[in-house]
Design a protein that fits this description.
The complex is a heterodimer of chains A (231) and B (481). Chain A is mainly alpha-helical. Chain A has 10 helices and no strands. In chain A, helix 3 packs across helix 7 and helix 3 runs parallel beside helix 8. The longest helix of chain A is centred in the middle third of the chain and has 33 residues. The N and C termini of chain A lie far apart (62 Å).
Amino acid sequence: MEHALSLPRERVVTALLWRPEWPAAIVIAAAWVASPVLHASAVAPPALAAWALMVVAMMGPMALPAVRHVALNSLRARRGRAIALYFAAYVTVWAGFGCVALTGEWLAMSMLGIDRGAVLAAALALAAAWQVTPVKRRALFACTRTVALAPRGRRAHVACLRFALLQGRRSVISCWALMLVMVAVGHASLPWMIGLTAFVLFEELTLVGRETLPSAAVGLVLAAVLVATGL
Amino acid sequence: MFTRREIWGLESDEPFDSISLAYAQAVQVMQGRDPSDPTSWRFQAALHGSVLQPPPGVAGWADCQHGSWYFLPWHRIYLYFFERIVRAAVLEAGGPDDWALPYWNYDRPFPANTMPPAFREPTLPDGSANPLRLPPPRRAAAVMNGAQIPPQVTSPAAALARSNYSSPPTPSFGGQRIGPVHFDGGFGAIESTPHNVMHPTIGGQSFGSGVCGGALMTDPNCAALDPIFWLHHANIDRLWNVWVSQPGRANPTDAGWLGQEFAFYDENGDEVRMTAGEVLDSAAQLQYVYDDMPSFRLPDVSGDQPDEREAGRPPELAAATDEPFELAGGARSVSLSAPSSSRSLLAGPPAKDARMLVRVEDIEAERDPAIVYGVYLNLPEDDDADRLAHHVGNISFFGIEQAQDPDQPPGGGVGWRHTFDATDAVNRLKQEDNWDPDDLRVTFEPVGLLPAPGEEAPPEDREAGASVPTVRIGRVSVFVA
């Protein structure tokens, strides 16, 4: 009986050791739950906080392979710190982009009075155009680039930060135009969040996704046309 | 059934026998064909690699699979159709109807560890130029002058000792479960040594100018233009059969791996597609065997196969270098830091089941220096030391330029890295009471060729005054698994 119980427990422990990114996965899952709840609340949340929560939910999954790499290549004693440092720095890069994007949103809608539908159609068209640029392709293909991780001390923290900033910057270059779509829909739409996250994960984590990069632009153009024509 | 024979066995009496002569004549015929003809020498070489854009409608152009678990099946299919093309040319010229591609088993004593004579003779028996011979800079001058390739480069022993085809756990025999990909860093042990290290050893360090103007075997885009390429790969293919014939070995059963299709061209110039699952048994599926295993049959390992993925605990980092460093052609030693928290992993008597892994990570280079570095653990400084006792593996940079091409889709590997199983070396040091976790050093030392018996040391292959391309190593680490 004891053996029957210990075997599954050992399997769970082994699985968790091979997936040391699980704390980050829990944070991402929590962000998926909290993001719609926050937007449904009576009091409007601060825009940057809502954005940060959304990028944890949407862009966090993209960071999981790198988080795993950091964890498996760090000393056990500092694994937790390394994961936290990497994930926080990665999200901070996206928060920085959020500041720019939200300012742009405010300028377009509040100052210039541009219709949200027009902004959405423009964002989708921009995302489609970005999809076929060499810069986007190279940023996407650099998803497996790594930085040498020093084992201990200040150098270990600096290397971890450098890695997070490198990958954060790379993912912003790859996905900024797609995330403008979320700005345009008011970063509260669960269907758009799910759809775009699936889209990004498909092109980031699958070979087919990487190879069909330009053809995905067709779908974005179609979406832009649908939004622009109000269908 | 066709039998692939060892080239030195064919050439025991004279440089050319009917098989090698027929090969030379077929190479001549293929070299004379239009490069747009799929059965031409250049077209076949371009299926492996090319800097040129593929002609319209051509499939499988520059598609060789390196640094993933597709390395072995892709090259087996490649050789199979190439052999059919050559055989058709041989038959057309009235050559032996049982012609099969020879292989070069270089992991044997002199003279088998030197370039076979048919590939060094200036002329064929009829006095015409020998197309199998490539003078420097196409091949390393020392190799063409009969220098011996050391066992450190030729030995597949470390690869054959791996029980798992794919990784994790690392290292594995056949490569990492990634891709398909043209070039990535998930090498299997057989790809690492002898495959990767033999390429620049044969090719040499002359970069030349223009397209394929220098060492052919050193550059993946040019390697298959060298007739010896095919014999080298036939040997690697043979070693796959040797490996799978050992007890406890099995090819992957993953449907994705088995069903992965690759495009090639047959002797009629028609596009053909074949999967890994269709080439597992060279005898039953492709009708060829090797002369050292004429009764080869793929072992029956049907039934439940243990899932080797992520079995047991992941390797744990125990020590690593603090800073990146460079290799510039000479020997270099680096020290590894082992924090106090890792002592329990490193110290103590040799553990029966524990494995010590030495990993060389985040390797970057603008250009392949065409130097093979031997990697040694705690190598003493005195020249009398038993170097092989400290040797854990070799590093070659074959294909690093392609792997770092920013326009090349990655296969999913994590950077360019090599993992070596150093368990035997560590246990030996522990038994000799010569193991100190506070004094861990890894030494990189260029591997040189050996002179033929009675000859002087082979000359440097690099042109005088030519600089050595620098290689950056991000980290060297020791993991305990």
